[in-house]
Amino acid sequence: MGADGDARAAALGGTPGLTRPRAAIVVTGSELVRGDRPDRNGPWLAQALLARGVEPARLTVVGDAPAELEAALREGLAHDLLVCSGGLGPTHDDRTVELLARAAGLELRLDEALAAEIERRSRTAWRPGIRKQATLPAGAVVAGIAGTAPAFVVSAAACVAIVLPGPPGELRALWPAALETEPVRAVLGRAAPRSRRVLRFYGVGEPAVAAALAAAGGEGDGVEATVCARDFEVHVDLLVEPGAEPQAAERERALAAALGPALFSRSDAPVEALVLEACRARGLALATAESCTGGLVAGRLTSVPGSSDVFVGGIVAYADAVKTAELGVPAALLRARGAVSPEAAAAMAAGARTRLRADVGVAVTGIAGPGGGTPEKPVGLVYLHASGPGGAERAASLRHPGDRETVRARATAAALHLCRTLVTEL
Amino acid sequence: MGADGDARAAALGGTPGLTRPRAAIVVTGSELVRGDRPDRNGPWLAQALLARGVEPARLTVVGDAPAELEAALREGLAHDLLVCSGGLGPTHDDRTVELLARAAGLELRLDEALAAEIERRSRTAWRPGIRKQATLPAGAVVAGIAGTAPAFVVSAAACVAIVLPGPPGELRALWPAALETEPVRAVLGRAAPRSRRVLRFYGVGEPAVAAALAAAGGEGDGVEATVCARDFEVHVDLLVEPGAEPQAAERERALAAALGPALFSRSDAPVEALVLEACRARGLALATAESCTGGLVAGRLTSVPGSSDVFVGGIVAYADAVKTAELGVPAALLRARGAVSPEAAAAMAAGARTRLRADVGVAVTGIAGPGGGTPEKPVGLVYLHASGPGGAERAASLRHPGDRETVRARATAAALHLCRTLVTEL
To answer: In the listed set B189, B211, B234, which residue is the last one of a domain according to the structure?
Structure first.
């Protein structure tokens, strides 16, 4: 970076040559390192750190082997920030505190006031356990107590360590208090928190979005960009340094100009929430008719709190007899065109509207596999239809081979997006 | 461990003082370390290693910062086995091979035959990329190619490294070939593969299962046991050394005796598959009626391939008008007892049977929250009912506060288990 670059970095609030603080996350739990249960804390902490302008550099998951945990903590202490979760219980195989102190070269000290507080909260009076949990590395600042386990922050040479309990609910509850401690505030003060802009696209591939982003200026000038395909959408995240808002706005404008029709949201709200919001704003009641997705579209819609004021219900019409009896799809149509056909999808959507007395009906029928495919109608073939008031109709189809789970998830996303398109244009 | 212990360990096929091979897993991907996307490879590899008798000792996720990746690889090489995923692409920021070679002190060599093979498979003729992907550490054994990325195995001092591509489908496809390479076979030969027994319980808590396991002999004698609460069930895994089958069988017998009614499965098949199988065996057609779960029960049932020969369909009756019109729940009943009541659940189950012409109907109605709760009917209150032929009826209720997602997931699991109980007793 030359003098111009330095000047620009300074103007943008960044300091040339100074990298943003980097963090290591260490998660302990034998069920996690063995893959018995997914680690929910690591990804959550990574996103929470990013939001504060700290770069998550590594995430290590270890079991309860002491040497492995100590090594992971030692490696973590080589970063600006170390966040640990788990291993704070009262028994001998909860070793995070003891091993962190050893790795950091800090003495352990019993905090008598903390012991009294833990005893007050404890349902048992098992003194060795209470004394163990009240023994912290020298200089530790207690950020709060979950159950009987104290969360704390301690400085060790150039690193600040945040130690949190393993249960995700407890970890998330104590996180804000840990951020408010003096040592952590000092680290965060070196991290220019970036603002974030999100653009979400549907109906366009990741490479096309990446190319449009590159043409729009790509990364740099205080804007960091990631393109990520998720849930059959493509998400662009712009992380914007203080002062770089104009550059970010210009990229956003260029992306919208290049990919206009595919850009459907600038928020994190899931598409089912956008569908419900669009219906609510227009006073429309919504119903579903599902075959291959088997209730997943209704399941996503009803995952949103308050969905009951828009969504009235749905029919899962797996058997053809149910399509006919409950949705009024003519048996002759099913015989002539098949249950997986644009005509069946349209009749199902109409049936959902009339039978469930809704304003908008959305229908899905397709072949999820692994069996049931033919050369004419292969696994992955899905027909979708949305039907609204005043003769509004929208149809779509998918032809993507895949496993059963993927075909169903893709069809569910497609149904929600088709419904969004229909309703937002009403 | 004294002389007796040594003798027993030898008799069980274990070698006293010799620990089973330990593995490190290193996953690279900036979207993974930032928590943008969950890591699917680490847990999958951990379980695959465990099944082969190798202990997963640590899982490290790093981004594309070279120093961080190199450090993680170096730490991983301190284990008997190192499994890496990701960073094998053709561009400069795919650095796994180069950094592994550096960490292991191995030279990089261009494999001309491999380059020709990659060029044949490649849709482009970008020679620098092809040459990069065909350049491997000295002594590497190619296990297969995914796209244009070779998976390989290489020995470095006391460690054997397995290098696999990042996309989960490609990684899983190449894994068996990597296990068949000579260096990996040598490591696996030191790992007495353990057999696995699984016992799954529903309707009993993790502490009670842990206590019963301890009373049944707990761990030791060549049997390693884990107790894990998952999806509102409690799973006990017994990992059994060669020769320790009698001890494992005795623990299994004692657990079954202690917790009999709660033990519902000795396989990994999900409960929805057990429900479908039980219906199929009895020639029964199945239908659902859902309020608060909004289609999730039907969604789980239809996730199983071949479900269409048992499951005919379902009604998602979110609005009361739909409960009345589509399921025949009397409006007077809804007025008198409320939609969240045992009576409404029973009427919904009966309605699912009759309206959808099924033999078995299962119904769920409850308060998922966060709004809608009252002191008498709080968030988390759920009524379930299953109805079968010949007057078979089963009812259940839940009263667990929780967030919307948890209440719905718990109710879905409860509906499936209620249905399983009803049908298996027919």
So the answer is: B189
